Amino acid sequence: MIILMLVTSLQNISVSYGNNAVLNNVNLSISSGERCCITGYNGSGKSTLLKVINGVVLPDEGKIWRQDKLRFSTLDQFLPDAADKTVYQAVAAGFSEIGYLLNQYKGLTADAATAPEELLAVQNKLDALDGWTVGYRVETMIDRLELPAEKKLSELS
């Protein structure tokens, strides 16, 4: 028997911006191990709901409970500095130096004019930092989210 622990709970959450009610008596419970997908039309309150969960927006009404030291991660829907990057480049960039090296390696292998010594230098750095494991993690994340790795972020909706 698997017992899931509750990590956050929202009860009767309401949020309005002026006279515009964005969330009205919303209830949500998330347990450990659960994955959630929030879908809806533009302007239906998805971003506001995530901001309430993260504590960025306080509700006008309702109760929020979060497990101590709980962190939620979200990806902002607006990525102004990354619009020209591919999905792979953006995900890899989250891994600091290794991500930079992975992106450099990918660019070098795509360029037929790359000097072999330059490619070897990047490969050696990735070997030393166990960068290939991180590369596998990047590819796994992209695959699990069913995203097109080589598509530019500006082309996604």
From TrEMBL:
Domain ABC transporter: 23-78
GO molecular function: ATP binding; ATP hydrolysis activity
Biological source species: marine metagenome
InterPro entries in alphabetical order: ABC_transporter-like_ATP-bd, ABCF_ATPase, P-loop_NTPase
Name of the protein in question: ABC transporter domain-containing protein
